[in-house]
Amino acid sequence: MSYEAVVFDNDGVLVEITDWDVLRGAARDTFASFDVDPSDEDLATVLSSVTVDGLEAMCARHGLDPEAFWHERDTNYTTVQQREVVEGRKPMYDDASVVRDLDVPLGIVSSNQHATIERILDHYDLREHFVTYYGRQPTVEDVRRKKPHPHFVERALEDVGTTNALYVGDSETDVEAAHAAGVDSVFLRREHRADYSLSVEPTYEFETLDPLVDLV
Ligand SMILES: [Mg+2]
Known about the structure:
alpha/beta, DNA polymerase, domain 1
């Protein structure tokens, strides 16, 4: 199979995932700015794998406006993650340099904040290698549209100009979003995914990004 475009997930694929303690701190700071002392369940609800239902239920428990709370949460996440990037604690993977060698249109679809993705691309001087990139805006609507929803993958495919494309990710939601958008998937099983079990079947499973050069 020879693909005409590749779209990448960001975290755990191109750059290392963010330290959980850093994200937990940003989530705690969000609650603090609304004068809420969160339970463990409250924190878990907004830490990762966030759903609109979960967010709205948590906000209802505490009399918070979901839109305002979420904007603050995502702004805090962007601030701390931009600092992690700039201070060297969220490095690019060595094999992510493959994006400089792939001679087809490339894109990024991340469930991280768009502003976080922009800082990453600028910091690692990668912007010119991608014809398109999407993160989330800090809105409840974009929580609804994040992967496994195919919304942003479909937009990226329009931008790269072909559906003869591969989507590369390190989560089940990446494989699901790719298939929902009608394209083949690569599940990237890096070290942090050694024990991760998938309930969906990716088109390919690789341990590094190196095999991509033979697929385009
Ligand atoms: Mg990821």
